[in-house]
Amino acid sequence: MRQPKRLSPIPGPKSQTIFRQEQKNLAPGLQGFALMAEVVMERGQGSWLTDVDGNEYIDFIGGIGVNGLGHSHPRYVKALQSQLEKLSVGSFTSEARAKLVQKVAEHTPGRINQLQLYSSGAEAVESAMRLAKCYTGKWEFLSFWGAFHGKTLGVMGLLGDGQKQKYGPFAPGCHTLPAFPDCYRCPLQLEPGRCGFACLELFEKAAKTQTTGAIAAVLVEPCQGTAGNIIPPKGWLKALQEVTKRLGALLICDEMITGFGRTGSFFASDDFGVEPDIITVGKSFGGGFPVSGLLTREEISKAEPWSKPSGSSSSYGGNPLAAMAALTTIEVIEEEKLCENSRLMGERLLGHFQRFKEKFPFVGEVRGKGLFLGIELVKDRETKEPLSEARMKEFYREGVQRGFLAMSYKPTIRFQPALTIDADTLDAGAGILEEMFTDMASRGDWR
Ligand SMILES: Cc1ncc(COP(=O)(O)O)c(C=O)c1O
Fold first, then answer.
1. Span from the CA of 122 to the centroid of ligand 1 (angstroms)
2. ∠375-289-329 over CA atoms, to 5°?
């Protein structure tokens, strides 16, 4: 089985020089795991990365769900190269975009068949909010504790715990309410499966008491990513749709991270039996190219002024290069049966994690849907007290030293490897994680 090559101390001499040089002029605030690693990546192939000193890494971070096809998928590289040589700029119709909108509509739930294109996730979410306002004539928005929908000011009012400090005041009418069903840490301290979705009852009550009743939309991640790759129980999203209808609001499913195969199907909402009113997509959608989008039904898409010429457009949204990136990504997902691979490899990785739970006292919970997985590390399984953040940062650095990259710098470890990952690479990554857990258990420094 291939293991990550290590040719120098990590970070190696070339990494150190380039990293230090960049730090002089790069403003602070880059993703923490990149800053902590201090390595400079040179190339990638599939689920493998190589740094400038020749050291290799197995990548279970996958650009936080962006890297659906794996690094530098040959078909993707070829398609983008050839599109770049032909045309890359502008919003005139291109063959790639015409094919893309049709292709996406083949996979959307129910009557959803309209796509508008953007360049970042937050931009698509904001457009969804504008559209919901235009369609309903209302102005309030609801989201959930733990939610993440981007960092632009228009969506920040809807972010979950601890992400808003110092950025207020936010747009009026944004309400972040209890509670997303994080069943391992039930906010109502109830027993999963026997609670009758009490968290949703609370949500509906809060919506009625905290708003003016002018709710344009409820915004939800079908599975919460940033909060820790949390998967709601079966039936919950469907029940939320009913609540949303009772509130007279649209349901916006933010599938930025769950969409395009990540959770084992094209759309997690579809898998949960829900046809949302609007879906927002990004990340894996473009296979690495910055392209995002909003999907909806024809009837909703006609709402004005959103639908007027130039009403919902943007400078880069759906340009020929972006359209080709998204089109090729979907074609590869279809041809290589990546939804199926996501399900199979996800089950395989979850199988490893379940074994870890039996073996290591600090593994409190493991969960996964497709290649969207999480592990909770706790000091005590009864109290569920998480391992300290400082310990986890060390743990992440240990992983980098061993050539293993996962979002393991927090006690809720997140995994979203490429959908193209094969069993050997998956097992090699899980093997390194097991070694790291074994060392932590024998040192006993997790308490
Ligand atoms: C569910 C969800 N929505 C929106 C976003 C924002 O996307 P972007 O960083 O492209 O603006 C993210 C990013 O992590 C996300 O996970």
1. 6
2. 80
